[in-house]
Amino acid sequence: MAYLTLKNINKIYPNGYHAVHDFNLEIEKGEFIVFVGPSGCGKSTTLRMIAGLEDISSGDFLINGKRANEKGPREREIAMVFQSYALYPQMTVYDNLAFGLTLQGVDEDVIEERVNKTAKILGLTDYLDRLPRALSGGQRQRVAVGRAIIRKVGIFLMDEPLSNLDAKQRVTMRSEITQIHRETGATTIYVTHDQTEAMTMADRIVVMKDGYVQQIGTPYELYFKPVNVFVGGFIGEPPMNFLRETVTDGHIHIGPFSLDTSKKLGDKAKDYEGKELVFGFRPEGIVLGKHDNAYQLNAMVELTEMLGDNTNVYIDINGEKAILKVDPHDTPEIDTEITFSIPYENVYFFDGETENVIE
Fold first, then answer.
1. pLDDT in tens, the chain (359 residues)
2. What are the Cα distances from residue 335, in Å, to 316, 323, 332?
3. Exposed, middle or buried, 77 (CB in 10 Å: 0-12/13-18/19+)?
4. pTM of the entire predicted model
């Protein structure tokens, strides 16, 4: 196992493009860290700097307290799983798993023992004599993961390893990778643009946007305590609803509805008089009908999506669009008016200018 430190890491390409800005993170031994964000946010670039595949423009990268900026990929004792599997097509599953150990000059008996043990963990025992082309996408991805864990290094890096799989395979592989992490105890950094993967797998999540870290925290912290509009909207499915309104006499007005901001913000409400606020609430953070200690709104139902365990209800509140998540047994009819309430504790107010949450 290993612990990692990234201090003020920057990546600036020769053309001047600043891909990663002042990235700071302490990773504990055995932690499962997920970098998440939209395409182009800098998450894969950061992973490649950790792997030694990209030079660090400035800042310090430490492994077990020792600076590793100048170390090559082999010296860092890191195993990486790529999006493309990167298997040798002419080699059997056995030989793909064994290849790295063979290059290291490991004894054949030891190689055989490790290959068989790794294959058993990954459910590949019956496929060891097959070529990659004879495997499904999920099986190929397991081989790619196996080739990493067989080396028994302290750090695993995974760059969107499930992006080529179908939805069912992704769910299966998520649980398998999580289980492998528990069994190996290796420090793992996992990159994805899929917030569901991040929420279900991570000990901590690093949310990135435009090369900047937006928030670092547990899945619980990111979901219930987002620091800004971006994190609130990125984490959660469907995403958080946001309505931009100006405060007048301590109230925001959504159509004919006047909502007293002090019910949520207390004495801070007066600091935002005449300013714009972003009123946020999660689709599942509502109660149909009237409710005490809550903001109450009426809306027209435009569309419903029955998903089995819940229904997404698309609504219009006097021209403002939002999504509600309700029990399927309470699914309202399209083109009808409904009343719903948002308990004060489920409401988020963000500063309209900075888009940071108002505590």
1. 568 999 999 999 999 999 999 999 999 999 999 999 999 999 999 999 999 999 999 999 999 999 999 999 888 988 888 777 778 899 999 999 999 888 888 899 999 999 998 888 888 999 999 999 999 888 888 888 888 888 778 899 999 888 777 788 788 888 888 888 888 888 999 999 999 999 999 999 999 999 999 999 999 999 999 999 999 999 999 999 999 999 999 999 998 899 999 999 999 999 999 999 999 999 999 999 999 999 999 999 999 999 999 999 999 998 999 999 999 999 999 999 999 999 999 999 999 999 999 98
2. 10, 15, 9
3. middle
4. 0.89
DSSP state of 113: H
Residues ≥6 apart with Cβ < 8 Å to 114: 101, 106, 150, 152
Residue owning tokens 């008996």: 109
Give Cα 356 to chain centroid, integer Å.
20
Residue 111 in contact with residue 103, Cβ under 8 Å? no
Polymer length in residues for the chain: 359
User: Of all helices (H) and strands (E), which one includes residue 9?
Assistant: strand 4-12
> Which pair of structure tokens corresponds to residue 137?
């996408």
**C-alpha 51 chain-centroid distance:** 20
Q: How many CA atoms lie within 13 A of 246 on its CB side?
A: 3
Q: β-strand 294-306 against 311-317: which pairing, if any?
A: antiparallel
Give start and end residues of each alpha helix (H) in the chain.
Answer: 43-51, 93-103, 108-122, 137-149, 167-184, 195-201, 219-224, 229-234, 262-265
